[in-house]
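Comment thread on ticket #2218

A.B. wrote:
> Attaching the input chain for the structure job we discussed in standup.
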Amino acid sequence: MSGQYRVSKERNRSRFYILLSIIFVVVMFKWGVPWMINTISGPERRESLINGNDIIPPQQPAISALPEATNSARVRVEGYTEAEAEVTLLINDVVEASDLADKTGFFNFDDATLILGENRIGVSAKDASGNINQSPISLITYDNKPVVVIIESPTDRTELFGKNKQTVEIKGKVNKEDAQVLVNNSFTMIESGGVFSYKLMLSDGENKIVVTATDRAGNRDEEEMKIIFHQ
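C.D. wrote:
> Ran it. Output below, let me know if you need it in another format.
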């Protein structure tokens, strides 16, 4: 009798453990798995995984740094987003072009066309399920207006004599106040109206003076003159 009792007790124990295991599995699938998905990936990702619907936007497109300004009507726009997403380039909120990102997420548009003045550059990415994400807006100015620099004094091939004339003041004007002016590769300040001046010490004999002006878009002008100094 004791042997049969022991066998019956073992069977009851096995049934109990099996029932407990089934309850554990049911509880995990009903509450535990959704909880873990929600904790790890957030509510939107949980719904996506449970219902089989992809509602997660692709990785936000990131545009590589663009110049602040350019003197070219065309510019290269490139960056990264989700791999193989459909990428659309927008300039001033108008669709310029579309292409697919490669398997690493890289995209590029070689000939984005700008209008004169400030341009708003943006990129949107759309995945296979139609989810869309938009890049931050980048600003770039297209400026093709020439820079003009004029040396007003002294005049070309001026001759100066004596130690008290060895330092000469180069005076001139540039048509863009935001330009950068260099006199023999040395920076000079631009005042209101584009006026500039620079004091230069002369060497004995012929001195070559080169004044260059460059604006932020890369437009450039250069003037050259010579001054003859005798000690």
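A.B. wrote:
> Thanks. Noting for the ticket: The chain has three domains: 1-55, 62-142, 149-230.
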